[in-house]
Amino acid sequence: MEAKKVSDSKVEIAQVMMPEHSNAAGNVHGGYILKLVDQAGAIVAARHTHSNAVTASLDRMDFISPVYVGNLVFAKASCNYVSRTSMEIGVRVEAECLRTGTHTHVGSAYLTFVALGEDDKPTQVPKLILETEEEKHRFEEAKKRRELRLQQVKKHKHIQQPCIVRPEKLE
Asked: How far apart are CA 38 and CA 89, in angstroms?
């Protein structure tokens, strides 16, 4: 399995916020922003692994600036860290007022994705090639966050859900 550069899977998605994304006052719902965060993270995970990757966790997301109808929202995502079958993806959300050009930082989050093989079991992911000092710094910080997450996970026991047959497997 060939290692990959951070830049190989990095993504930036943009979307104009419309009335259906907001409440009656014109503020975009936080849940819609979280959906964009998860989508951007999933794209990075899929590009890095070229396999199905599922969201295992999302670290807290604090909304530090509001987003309004008419704003252009950017979700900028890149891979910070990889272990054997999982990876941490960092996502930064920004909003741009299209009338003034003003950019604001909306919030940031770290997501953990697990790569799944054809058998829907965790599968190995490519190593990460770190090219810049910032990428090396993010990798080391992500490694520390991973250790904290693993300590938290030990407190919860996973319960296997009954098998759900996917439509494509019915054929």
From this structure: 10
DSSP-assigned beta bridge partners for residue 116: 52, 122
> Which residues of the chain fall short of a pLDDT of 50?
none
Residue 151's pLDDT is 82
What 3 state SS string does the chain have? Answer: CCCEEHHHCCEEEEEECCHHHECCCCEECHHHHHHHHHHHHHHHHHHHHCCEEEEEEECCCCCCCCCECCCEEEEEEEEEEECCCEEEEEEEEEEECCCCCCEEEEEEEEEEEEEECCCCCECCCCCEECCCHHHHHHHHHHHHHHHHHHHHHCCCCCCCCCCCCCHHHCC
> What is the average pLDDT score of the chain?
92
Domain chopping of the chain, boundaries: 4-169
CATH number at 4-169: 3.10.129.10
